[in-house]
Amino acid sequence: METKKSSRALALNTLSLAIGLSYGLQALAQDASPDNDKLDTVTVTAQKRKERLLDVPLAVTALSSEALENHGVEGPSALTGLVPNLDMAPSPVSSLIASVGMRGMSSDQPSIWADPAVGMYVDGVFIGKSMGGLLDVVDIEQLEVLRGPQGTLFGRNTEAGAMNFITKKPSGEFDGSASLELGDYNRRVERISLDLPKMGGVSALVSLRNETQDGFIANPDGSAWGSKDRQAGRLALRIQPVSGLTVDYALDRTHIHETPPAGELLSNSGYGSLYPISTPIAQTAYLFQNPTCMAYSGNTCTYSIGGLAKGMAPYVNTSYPASITAPTTPVQPYERLDVIGDTLTAEYRLNHDNTIKYIGAWRNMVYDELTNYSGSPVPIFNGWRSSNYTTQSHELQWIGNKGDLRYVGGLYYFTDYGTEHEPTEGTLFTFTPGVIGYNSVNFAITSKASAIYGQLDYDINSLWTATLGGRYTKETKTVSVWSYNTDQNFNQGSNPYTVNGAAAASFEKFTPTFNLMYRISPDTNVFGRVAEGFRSGGFPAEAPIAAGYSPFTPFKPESSTSYELGLKTAFLHNKGQLSTNLFYTDVSNYQVGILPPGTIAPTIVNVGKMRSQGIEIDAAYKISSGVKVSGSYGYLDAKFLQFIAPGVNGAPVDAASNTVGGGAPKQTFNFNIDARLAQFSSGMNLRALLDYRYVADRYALPAQINVNAPNASIGPTAAESLLPATSTLNLRMILGNIKVGGPGDAEAVFWVKNLTDQHTLVSRMDLSGLYQMGYWSDPRTLGVTLNYRW
User: Fold this and answer.
1) Which residue, 21, 80, 604, 769, is the most exposed by fewest CB within 10 angstroms?
2) How many CB atoms lie within 10 A of CB 214?
3) What does each C-alpha distance from 604 to 1, 111, 392, 544, 646 come to in angstroms?
4) Neighbouring C-beta atoms of residue 606, cutoff 10 Å
5) How many Cβ atoms sit within 10 Å of the Cβ of residue 415?
6) Beta pairing, strands 745-753 & 781-789
7) Which residues have a Cβ under 8 Å from the Cβ of 491 and sit 6 or more positions away?
8) DSSP 8-state code for residue 329
9) Eight-class DSSP state of 790
10) Distance between CA 413 and CA 269 in Å, rounded?
11) Backbone angles phi, psi at 657, to 5 degrees
């Protein structure tokens, strides 16, 4: 109770301080002389129309193309620590699968049968899954990160928030840029973007990107772990056949073929050994540690099981490794991603006040990986994954205004189809050293979702604006699963199916929102917001057939209700900008991804209720024409109110008071300085950009605090799920406006990432309660980028 009171008091005090600060700065601004050295006015499309960020009653962080370049961001993977209360890291075993947490709600299941809590969009098109979510986006013009439920305008799977990457559109005038980046670990990146002159009424923009880099951690049996080999391209076309009609078409393609991140064996024992030996998981863990003789010939054991941990012991390491030997057969570990997608957007201006917009998209993703899950040359567990996932979406919007009323209405349809083939091998299937078992899990999933939505913004008077919106969504999901044991070539042969069946389920949800905004001044607004969002239900296609688990039993949709109070202000003639948000969110039917004890088959279960509350601050200030400072801060208090899970004796318990949440760092902070150090008579200038990011301790996934507590459940412990705080410093020195001839200017950028060479665990997992794996952050890297723009 005291914690709850103190957190609310802190929230109210922070808001009072922000309001007082805005009044004080407004008063100072009245005495300040106008200054041309202002911050840019930021516009966003968070409410489906272009508006000043200052006038949008949402918690939004907007990053321009210049800001993204200064931070070295070319995709979602580089956003951790840059946005308040956002925790984003690669999933264990893959650098191409996103593990995203926002405001304490996280996505911890990488497969295509699971849905994210944070929706990812490119030009308003929903990407669909966490798998493939960390690919680079070519030609980003702006990134908008919307925090809090976005269920009204964006729909399902945005209950924690949404990220929308907005790409550059063709201008019809000759423009472009080219760059070459060189760095250590043989890093090489080439980029080119050509904005071509209008030809026959068609404007075109072509962009290409190629990236290669050696891995950071050696693999004595093959290529170093964590290498990069990525190619991406984008073609954008714009035509305006008649007055008022604009048609944009974009085709993008990404190809990636590289080695997965290094998985290190942190311990050859897991949480299973902590429970009483009478529990099945402890019995399994005991066999994993200690061989048991099943047959004797005289005094000689002729058949034993268990004891796999002994062979792993020499490879245990808890510090940053120089190399990891972890072969797979018959080829080296790899991860591959091929994505192709096209988007058609048509916008027709009916009159000065009304516009109709259509967005249609088709995307196909093929993902393949071969990964060693033991961090050692011992053949404990190797796994393949081959996924093919296709989405199609159509959205029709009507955007307009009449007097003091602004409105957005829309119809939305989404469908997807995915298949996955997962052969696995290892002694984990036989519990006998040297004897490898083989298995194959296969499934297909489909979704069909349709929605109708609308939002009204009404100016009650010159000071007050009310917003009311709602969205109704209905969807149907299906799953088909067939799995079996195989021979060493993964052929089924005469082996019977261990799972073979299909199922279907439908879900529906209405998600309303209500906002009320008050204008303290033309450049200062205070708002309150109540909004609902939800994450779709579905089928855990990889779940085992066991007590309480089945791939054909659907988990329920997860829903959230959020209450927010915010302030946005620009002060001193827009030399400074400040945005502050307080939020309080209740989540029901909270979804948690788990490995049922003693199995390697993941599933999702609804454990109950979770609550998150906190503070978010974005700020920027132009000290002078050559110096700008900016930063953000997030404070998060997330905890379970109900966590129903199997107890030690098998009966369900409410483990809420004994369980920590995953992907929920208490604090996130970043501070940036962009300073011009020298201005030369030739027009050339020298700038320094310092980027500091901090992410507090957090847990990789929900975990038990005390396995001996009366309400202890079976699962990973907090101690073995803890990810330490990360503190990262990046530096860029930019020599700009270099005259080298031709129509443009050149630029040389000298950069260092992770300047202090911090080594921290960024993800980890306890595999089935038997042993633990960990994955590390990238070491210090440095290099130079040469840009030419015209």
Assistant:
1) 21
2) 15
3) 31, 11, 25, 11, 14
4) 17
5) 16
6) antiparallel
7) none
8) S
9) -
10) 48
11) -70, -10
Do residues 136 and 191 touch, judged by C-beta distance below 8 A?
Answer: no
Sign of CA dihedral 651, 652, 655, 661: positive
Distance CA 499, CA 363 (A): 30
Evaluate whether 417 touches 444 at the Cβ level (below 8 Å): yes
| pLDDT interval class at 565 (50, 70, 90) | very high
Q: What is the per-residue pLDDT across 27-72, written as a single tens digit (0 to 9) for each?
A: 333 333 334 588 989 999 999 999 999 999 999 999 988 888 888 7
State both tokens at 404: 């003091």
d(CA 30, CA 578): 18
SS3 label, residue 15: helix
Digit-coded pLDDT (tens) for 166-217: 999 999 999 999 999 999 999 999 999 999 999 989 999 999 999 999 999 9
254/136 Cα distance (integer angstroms):
8
Tokens of 591: 């979804």
Q: Is 302 exposed, middle or buried (0-12, 13-18, 19+ CB in 10 A)?
A: exposed
- In angstroms, the CA 141 to CA 131 distance is 24
Contact 423, 384 (CB under 8 A): yes
* Number of CB atoms found within 10 A of residue 300's CB: 8
Contacts made by residues 676-684, CB under 8 angstroms, sequence distance 24+: 676/625, 676/626, 676/627, 679/626, 682/737, 682/739, 683/737, 683/739, 684/735, 684/736, 684/737, 684/738, 684/739
Round to whole Å and give the CA distance between 654 and 695: 30
Place of tokens 């840009």: 787
CA-nearest of 661, 770, 643 to 722 is 661
- DSSP per residue, 428-464: GGTTSTT--EEEEEEEEEEEEEEEEEEEEEEE-SSSE
Residue with tokens 């961090």: 375
What ranges do the domains of the chain cover?
2-789
CA distance 416 to 593: 22
Q: How far apart are CA 282 and CA 180, in angstroms?
A: 55
How far apart CA 301 and CA 294 sit, in angstroms, is 8
What is the spatial distance between Cα 119 and Cα 391, in angstroms, rounded to a whole number?
Answer: 14
CA atoms within 13 A on the CB side of 57: 27
Q: Does domain 2-789 have CATH number 3.40.50.920?
A: no
Q: What share of the chain is helix, strand, coil (3-state, %, to 5)?
A: 10, 55, 35
- Size (the chain), residues: 790
How far apart CA 542 and CA 440 sit, in angstroms, is 11
Distance from C-alpha of 622 to C-alpha of 628, rounded to nearest angstrom = 4
Three-state SS sequence of 116-158: CCEEEEECCEECCCCECCCCCCCCEEEEEEEECCCCCCCCCCC
How many alpha carbons lie under 13 Å from residue 784 in its C-beta half-sphere?
Answer: 4
Contact 567, 523 (CB under 8 A): no
In angstroms, how far is the first alpha carbon of the chain from the final one? 61
What residues contact 618, with CB distance under 8 A and at least 6 apart? 61, 84, 577, 578, 579, 631, 632
pLDDT digits (tens, 9 = 90+) for 371-424: 999 999 999 999 999 999 999 999 999 999 999 999 999 999 999 999 999 999
Contact 25, 576 (CB under 8 A): yes
Instruction: Give the residue from 777, 785, 779, 772 showing the smallest Cα distance to 269.
Output: 772
Say how far apart CA 69 and CA 55 lie, in whole Å: 26
If phi > 0 it is left, if psi is from -120 to 50 it is alpha, else beta; for residue 11 that is alpha
Look at the block and give the residue holding tokens 């030739």.
Answer: 682
DSSP string, 272-307: GGGS-TTSHHHHHHHHHHS-EEEEEETTEEEEEE--
